[in-house]
Amino acid sequence: MEHAIELQNVHKSFGGFGIKDLSLQIKKGFVTGFIGANGAGKSTIIKMILNLLQPDAGEVRVFGMNYKESEKMIKERIGFVFNDDMLYGELTLLEMKKLIAACYRKWDDTLFHHYCDRFELPLRQNMKSFSDGMKMKAALAFALSHHADLLIMDEPTSSLDPIFRRELMELLRGVMLDEEKTIFLSTHIMSDLSSLADYITLIQEGEIVFSKALNEIEEEYAIVRGGAELLDKDTEQYFLSIRRSDNGFEALTADYQTVEKLFGSEAIIERASLEEIMYYSRGGKVDAAFN
Ligand SMILES: Nc1ncnc2c1ncn2[C@@H]1O[C@H](COP(=O)(O)OP(=O)(O)OP(=O)(O)O)[C@@H](O)[C@H]1O
């Protein structure tokens, strides 16, 4: 399968934070949700994919091309949305549009005006005075108006009201009806992903924990609760993280079926949500004690 994005053995360090030897492949034609705690490295990786930051070592390829040889061709095919004030000076939306449209061969002015209408954006108002949500909508209108094959979005929904968030999810599902399109989006709002994402990539302290199909995650991961007597060297190996208390333990497994066979009705075994997977895998290996 062709990959829309490939990172190979990428290193990047800033003072105390480091990404070491990270490799990641994002499938073409699907939506991948990129999740991880604050400071895990999501924006850093997204910036490297967009060539806004260069890795210290390793390689970033988009549609099989690298920026050194094919920067213009790659950028032409990407639409990006940042939760950031990076775009807006003293310009109106129309003035900004003129600058951005000039960068893309496939710029579609009709489509841009369609999105501005749909998002109720004022064309002649200084963008500096836009609310956070309006800025995000403007960034979306720009990203969606040049027929990009790959949409990369860094927390696109964080400043949006719940109504528009739902509309955006609907809109993105519409984009994905074209099987050639790919979306890679980071978010802290897990419910956005349940109806949209095909794959989930979880990052923790600069390391990829997994990159998997959402339905596999739903089938494999579970939270197990039981008495301390159930834990020993043999059973502990099925857990990614164990939290012990005076009353017993709670643990995360990525092997639902085996654990169910092993413990049967002796333990409570429930499918894990993405929030729970993030929470329990925080701090990594076995024996994160709690009380
Ligand atoms: N330009 C920079 N200089 C120094 N440190 C940086 C720089 N950019 C990011 N970092 C550090 O890298 C780490 C990862 O930051 P990053 O913004 O990639 O995380 P994130 O997963 O996107 O977090 P959040 O969910 O809070 O947006 C943080 O510790 C951050 O302080």
Automatic annotation (TrEMBL):
* CDD domains for the chain: ABC_DR_subfamily_A
PROSITE patterns per UniProt: ABC_TRANSPORTER_2
| InterPro entries reported in the protein's UniProt record | AAA+_ATPase, ABC_transporter-like_ATP-bd, ABC_Transporter_VariousFunc, P-loop_NTPase
Q: Which SMART domains match?
A: AAA (SM00382)
Q: Which UniProt keywords apply?
A: ATP-binding, Nucleotide-binding, Transport
* The keyword Nucleotide-binding is annotated on this UniProt entry: yes
MF terms per GO, please? ATP binding
Residue ranges of every copy of the ABC transporter domain listed in the record:
5-230
What domain of life does the native source organism fall in? Bacteria
Organism from which the protein derives:
Tigheibacillus jepli
Q: Which PANTHER family match?
A: ABC TRANSPORTER ATP-BINDING COMPONENT, ABC TRANSPORTER ATP-BINDING PROTEIN ALBC-RELATED
Q: What is this protein called?
A: ABC transporter ATP-binding protein
Question: What Pfam families does the entry give?
Answer: ABC_tran
